[in-house]
Specification:
Layout: H1 2-16, H2 33-44, E1 50-54, H3 61-71, H4 73-77, E2 79-83, E3 88-92, E4 98-100, H5 105-117, H6 138-159, H7 161-176, H8 182-210, H9 234-237, H10 239-248, E5 253-257, H11 266-280, E6 289-294, H12 301-307, E7 310-313, H13 323-336, H14 345-351, H15 358-377, H16 385-397, H17 399-406, H18 411-463, E8 468-474, E9 480-482, H19 483-486, E10 502-508, E11 513-518, H20 521-560, H21 565-572, H22 574-577, H23 580-583, H24 586-594, H25 615-625, H26 639-644, H27 659-667, H28 672-682, H29 687-696, H30 703-713, H31 717-723, H32 729-742, H33 745-751, H34 756-762, H35 767-770, H36 776-786, H37 800-808, H38 816-827, H39 838-845, H40 848-856, H41 858-866, H42 876-889, H43 894-903, H44 923-935, H45 943-953, H46 957-965, H47 967-971, H48 980-987, H49 993-999, H50 1016-1024, H51 1032-1041, H52 1046-1051, H53 1054-1060, H54 1068-1076, H55 1082-1092, H56 1099-1104, H57 1114-1123, H58 1127-1136, H59 1143-1152, E12 1167-1172, H60 1175-1186, E13 1190-1202, E14 1207-1218
Parallel strand pairs: 1-6, 1-7, 2-5, 5-6
Antiparallel strand pairs: 3-4, 8-9, 8-10, 10-11, 12-14, 13-14
Length: about 1200
């Protein structure tokens, strides 16, 4: 039971996984309810006898009929189906259209009759003249014979009993001889008779079959005649048979299918006539209905409605717009069964518009399954389901073209031959263009070199003012440059850039040797050098452009040979690539354009069987032997056999060049001799060999082995590559990568002839990026063995291991660019600091290999990087570090140190930090640096730095200059470090007086310096600043050395002087100087006037009394009065000091001032005297009244007449009454 269950389950699973679909109409259509309803209504309608199911081929008309008959069993018993169709021959007419198999009308009608009469059992139409073979059952015949036997027995028993009894006795007698009883004997006889009858029945069936023909026999009188001789149709001749058929049978509905394919409208006329006859015959019970499944356009509009009583339009189940949905539905059903086909929805939607018929679609899917299982699965090939489906679609839509394809001919084969033809033609065109461009490049290069030489000649001629032909340029007695050397293409003109004053040896136009000293060499050189560099720049741009075009063309050739037909069509267009015959097949063009049918089509339609060489292989062998060149990409199939049939010497010919052959040689270990012969030929440095290598290397899977063999056999390989002006930089990189990746370093060193490889690597900044795909250790080994020194290198996407090796082992030039790369590598956030504080940034980075490299090459680093214009923000500490290291390493480099100090925007906080640790051996150099720091004010302004400098170098002119310049700021700083010694030296120094005065408060000292050691101006300042204590001894010392400073000494020490003024001699000049000084206190002035004024009065002192406000004695007043020269001044003195005067004093004064005060001096009588009404005169009047000089006064307004102007006015006066004094 278990075994049975397993078998049943296995069959169920196989059924579930079955993807095949039959092409027969289905009997359960979807969305067909309305069709069935309309058809049923029409069939039931009494008046409707001709019904049309009208729709295009593949619309599902037959499926509607099947579904209808399935759902209506009663109708099915009364229905007949007749199908007639013709098909296309595998031939075309003279217009190229496919020919159809044509049928005569009689053949059609005969075919219909056969389908009618072969439908029913011959027993149902026994009177029919049609005969057909039918199966005879021998058992039935045997049954009939047994029945007859028994009937005869019974008749004999009834009507001939004697005879019956006699037969029974004879049977029993015969049995008795064998010892059998009567009953047994009768039974055996009966069984024997039945057996004999069975043998007779079997014999009858065999004999009858031998005399039957396997076809329908028509009566003699109804034999079909040729249409040329018979006037009646088959229907007319056999009308009685047809009528009899419908009269005897129950069939009342006939479905005609595919009659429209016959394209013979007359058959429809005959059928309609037949329908009318049948329906009009009274002997036939019921209505005869003909249902036609035809296409819509079989009749015109009026004919359709007249011919058919009812027309049912059938909408196609599938067309070009929805066939994709059916495809996808079938794929989904397969997926549900666990079968997945790698066919995308995009592919289905792309190809489905070409499939418009349901049967074709189903057959495509069926054949796809068969092909896939047979070719892909059975052979275990990795084939594309989409490509296979595309080929099956093409097979179903163009079966004849597909059959030709399997025979390696036809339109598909032509398409791929067109591809090879187009590639050959296009590559030939591009090669011709490459040849033209290469020739132009070489000519352009030669022309440019010639023009550079002309510019050099012009430069040399200009240097000697065109007085002759130079032959050498002398730098000095030993060094000189020959003109022949300068004129070489490889000479670097920058070697002349450092020359200044040179001598040029030349031949005059008279052929005499002469020498000319050129002082403006650089002026002339730079002018022509710029022209040469500009010209070379333009040349390089032009060369690069042409190289780019050549490389693009080579790249196109490389790529084109490997392009698929799809890509060729996309790039160049269908009409350019394919021949007209191929273009006419729209489906094929579509499949090729989309790539659904490609170069591997043969794998999808045939079994692969390995036999001998192909026809193409033999053509190649013959071409080699005849030294005829074929395309490099000529297709070979049995490469091993081809190589066996070629002799070693033939591998020395250019005609041997073939991509597939070389690929095979590289892949195999055998045939080493032939391989090396071919490699040696490829290394012969010819253009053709290089073209082959350059194209082949893009395609081969064995690049490593090829490059190894070439490097071994071709010593100048890299030289030829790098010097080939037609090879672009990118292509050179490609070959360099191959060499480094696959050739050992020893061989690479040998290939680096004339340093061409190392030079190429060094001069291209992106080289490490280009080599990033190579193993790090190989790159490192190359750098080491070639001794590469990078001047610029890009680090993005470069291996960290490689970069660390370069940076840590100093395989680079110490320049700004490389330093940036290192900082970028270690910490790119610090890059911004390199522009303005390079060394500081590097120290902060802390990358020891770089720091060490810099410190070992300080001079180069400082001159080349630190002293650049923008690098001015270095930290003080790092600048000091650089200065110390440079002085320590090379004390003669003081000049660079000074440049560094001047260049950096620094301020040293402690001047001792700048090389202060050095001993006295470095004093000279350190002083130069310190002086520069002071001069450029790049040291913090504080007394500690001044003291530090003074401690080491005492007071120098540079220090004094620094102090003078910053005296104002220093005066504001507190001095806690400078003591007496510095102060004494400072006071006696030649410092500017202004600075000296400002800075004195900062000096801490008790003045005991001899006055004669100090400049007069400084003594004056010291006096003003009270640095010299006042005493009689100092006064006398100053009076002896600088006597004119004595007044200042007194004035700035007034209190001390006032205490001892009696001990110090006074003089008119001294007193005058003291009193006239603004520094003198008014109280001290009053004392000095009252003490020394009477004895040492001067005119200036007297006049000065008018300006100061001090109290003086009457004696001083009187003395001063005598020194005043004018009445006006005396009047001012009297008015100022009127408060100390009495009546007698006024009288003396008025007597001298009679012009100002008329009548006031006369006291002999009481009288009135007038004076102007002013504030001073009011004060005077009050004093006069107070001392009894006048008795009273009044203020009055009086008429006034100006005799000059002749006008009058009013004036204010004080009218005083002078008191009379008796004498």
């Amino acid at each position: 039971m278990e075994r049975i269950r397993e078998v049943i389950n296995k069959r169920i699973q196989e059924k579930k996984k079955n993807e095949f679909t039959d092409l027969a109409p289905i009997d359960d259509i979807e969305n067909g309810a309305e069709y069935l309803k309309a058809l049923h209504w029409a069939i039931k309608k009494e008046k409707v006898k001709n019904i049309a199911l009208a729709g295009p081929y593949g619309a599902g008309k037959s499926s509607i009929i099947d579904t209808y008959l399935k759902k209506h069993r009663i109708t099915r018993r009364k229905a007949l189906r007749v199908s007639m169709a013709t098909f296309v021959e595998n031939k075309t007419d003279k217009n190229g259209n496919p020919k159809k198999i044509s049928l005569e009308q009689d053949e059609i009608e005969l075919g219909i009759l056969k389908q009618l009469f072969y439908k029913v059992n011959y027993k149902k139409i026994p009177q029919s003249r049609y005969r057909k073979l039918h199966k005879i059952n021998w058992k039935r015949v045997w049954g009939y014979l047994v029945l007859i036997f028994f009937v005869f027995g019974i008749v004999e028993f009834i009507f001939f009993p004697d005879t019956f009894q006699m037969i029974i006795k004879k049977i029993e007698v015969a049995g008795g001889k064998f010892g059998l009883k009567g009953m047994v004997s009768n039974s055996i006889f009966l069984a024997f008779c039945v057996g004999i009858l069975a043998i007779i029945a079997r014999t009858y069936r065999l004999v009858l079959f031998r005399f039957k023909v396997n076809e329908v026999k028509l009566p003699a009188e109804t034999v079909l005649k040729n249409s040329e001789t018979a006037a009646e149709t088959v229907f007319n001749k056999n009308m009685d048979e047809i009528v009899y058929f419908f009269e005897e049978t129950k069939y009342r509905i006939v479905f005609f299918e595919d009659l429209d394919r016959l394209e013979d409208p007359s058959i429809f006329i005959h059928l309609r006539e037949l329908n009318i006859l049948l329906n009009n015959y009274d002997g036939i019970k019921g209505r005869i209905v003909f249902v036609y499944a035809i296409r819509d356009d079989i009749f015109t509009d009026t004919d359709r409605t007249k011919f058919f009583e009812f027309i049912i339009p059938v909408i196609p189940i599938i067309n070009s717009t929805n066939s994709g949905e059916i495809f996808l539905q079938k794929l989904e059903e397969s997926e549900k069964k666990g079968i997945v086909h790698e066919i995308s929805q995009e592919f289905i939607l792309d190809v489905s518009p070409y499939v418009e018929d349901m049967r074709i679609l189903q057959n495509i899917y069926n054949e796809f399954i068969v092909y896939k299982e047979t070719i892909r699965t059975d052979q275990e090939l990795k084939l594309s389901d989409e490509t296979m489906m595309a080929l099956i679609i093409f097979k179903n839509l163009y079966p004849r073209e597909f059959a030709e394809l399997q025979m390696e001919r036809g339109v598909v084969k032509q398409a791929f031959e067109d591809k090879q033809r187009y590639i050959s033609e296009q590559c030939m065109q591009w090669r011709n263009e490459i040849d033209e461009l290469t020739q132009k490049l070489e000519k352009y290069h030669d022309d440019c070199l010639e023009q550079v030489k002309e510019l050099k000649t012009a430069m040399l001629g200009a240097m000697v003012d065109w007085q002759g032909i130079p032959y050498s340029i002398k730098k000095n007695y030993w060094d000189k440059y020959s003109v022949s050397k300068i004129m070489e293409d490889s000479f670097e003109l920058l070697q002349l850039a450092e020359l200044k004053d040179v001598e040029i040896e030349y031949y005059t136009w008279n052929s005499y040797q002469s020498v000319k000293s050129v002082n403006n060499f650089q002026e002339v050189f730079k002018r022509y050098y710029e022209r040469i560099k500009n010209f070379q720049f333009v040349q390089e741009k032009g060369v690069c452009s042409i190289k780019g075009e050549i490389e693009d063309l080579k790249k196109n050739i490389h790529e084109l040979s490997g392009w698929s037909l799809k890509k060729l069509i996309e790039k160049f267009g269908v009409h350019n690539v394919l021949s007209e015959k191929v273009v006419e097949n729209k489906l094929l063009v579509f499949m090729l354009r989309r790539g659904y049918i490609d170069e591997k089509y043969a794998n999808y339609i045939n079994y692969f069987k390995g036999t001998s060489i192909t026809k193409e292989d033999m053509n190649y062998i013959l071409a080699v032997k005849n030294m005829e060149k074929l395309p490099y990409n000529y297709n070979l199939t049995k490469v091993g056999m081809v190589i066996q049939r070629l002799q070693p010497y033939e591998f020395e010919q250019k005609s041997i060049f073939n991509f597939i052959l070389l690929e095979y040689l590289l892949s195999e270990e055998n045939d080493d001799k032939k391989r090396m012969i071919l490699i040696n030929q490829l290394s012969d440095r010819t253009v053709e060999s290089w073209e082959f290598i350059d194209e082949f290397i893009e395609q081969t899977q064995y690049k490593a082995r090829l490059i190894q063999l070439l490097a071994l056999c071709w010593p100048d390989m890299w030289n030829d590559i790098v010097q080939n002006i037609s090879i672009t930089y990118e292509r050179k990189i490609f070959y360099l990568q191959l060499l480094i990746d696959n050739v050992d370093t020893k061989r690479l060193f040998e290939l680096n002839d004339n340093n061409n490889m190392s030079g190429f690597i060094e001069e291209n900044p992106d080289i490490l990026q280009q080599l990033s795909s190579i193993q790090d250790q190989k790159v490192i080994s190359l750098i080491e063995i070639l001794g590469i020194i990078f001047t610029n290198v890009s680090i993005e996407n470069v291996s960290e291991e490689v970069l660390r090796y370069v940076f840590e082992n100093q395989y680079y030039e110490l320049n700004d660019t490389m330093i940036r790369r290192i900082v970028e590598f270690e910490n790119d956030t610090m890059l911004s600091g390199l522009d303005t504080r390079n060394y500081t940034t590097i120290i902060s980075l802390g990358y020891e290999p770089l720091i060490k490299y810099i410190q070992e090459n300080l001079k180069q680093y400082v001159k080349g990087i630190i002293l650049t214009p923008n690098n001015t923000k270095e930290d003080v500490k790092q600048v000091m570090d650089l200065l110390e290291r440079m002085l320590e390493n090379d004390p003669e480099e003081t000049k660079i140190c000074l440049e560094l100090v001047n260049h950096e925007e620094i301020c040293v906080d402690d001047i001792s930090e700048c090389c202060g640790k050095f001993d006295s051996d470095f004093d000279k150099d350190v002083k130069i640096l310190w002086d520069e720091l002071l001069d450029k004010e790049k040291v913090s302004l504080k007394w500690e730095n001044i003291k530090c400098y003074w401690d080491r170098y005492k007071i120098t002119q540079e220090l004094l200059q620094y102090i003078e310049t910053n005296s104002e700021q220093l005066a504001c700083l507190k001095n806690q470090c400078l003591k007496k010694e510095f102060a004494e030296e400072f006071i006696t120094s030649a410092i500017d007086d202004s600075a000296f005065e400002k800075l004195l408060p900062q000096l801490e000292l008790e003045f005991d310096i001899p006055i004669e050691t100090v400049e007069k101006q400084k003594v004056e300042i010291l006096i003003k600043k009270k640095y010299i204590p006042f005493d009689i001894k100092k006064y006398d010392e100053i009076k002896e050395v600088y006597p004119d400073l004595c007044p200042d000494f007194i004035l700035y020490n007034q209190a001390e002087y006032m205490e001892v003024m009696e001990k110090i001699p006074m003089g008119e000049t001294l007193l005058e100087t003291l009193l006239l000084s603004s520094v003198l206190d008014s109280s001290n002035a009053e004392v000095l006037l009252n003490v020394f004024g009477e004895n040492y009065m001067t005119t200036h002192i007297a006049q000065y009394l008018l300006q100061i406000d001090v109290k003086i004695s009457i004696s001083v007043f009187n003395t001063a009065w005598t020194y005043l020269l004018t009445d006006e001044i005396k009047n001012k003195l009297m008015l100022k000091y009127c408060s100390i005067l009495n009546a007698p004093d006024f009288e003396e004064c008025f007597s001298e001032l009679s012009k100002i005060y008329p009548k006031f001096g006369d006291r002999s009588k009481r009288h009135n005297a007038e004076m102007a009404n002013t504030n001073e005169n009011k004060k005077l009047a009050d004093r006069l009244k107070e001392v009894g000089y006048i008795t009273s006064y009044t203020e009055q307004e009086k008429d006034d007449f100006d005799p000059v102007k002749g006008t009058g006015g009013k004036k204010n006066i004080i009218s005083c009454w002078i008191k009379m004094v008796k004498m």
